[in-house]
Amino acid sequence: MFQHPTGIVQMKIFTSDNGFGYFPETQVFAQIWQRIQTEYQHEYMYTASKAGLQFGIDVNNDDISFFWKGYNCTILEYIEQTIQNLVGLKHIPPNELKDMFNMAKE
Fold first, then answer.
1. Contact criterion met (CB below 8 Å) for 59 and 31
2. Domain limits, the chain
3. CA–CA distance, 88 with 18 (Å, rounded to integer)
4. What stretches in the chain show pLDDT beneath 70?
């Protein structure tokens, strides 16, 4: 089981939502979104890291990059779960989301 090769998956979503790096306010919003996502998935990512899995989000001028790394036997399930977690953020109660936003903003 421990001799399975490691898989690395990267995905880029090209978007104009962060203003292609021209507008500071959109770039700041994208950075806050990244921090909220990281905080929202913190417990899940900690547990996954103990199993040798890694996940990261990087906000660039014209894209948002996602990065997964882990053993081939679990990487597909890990990708699916992290994407479900990303989408699940929209179901958080507004007061919880406001707290996460304020923490990320600081």
1. yes
2. 6-105
3. 21
4. 1-4, 21
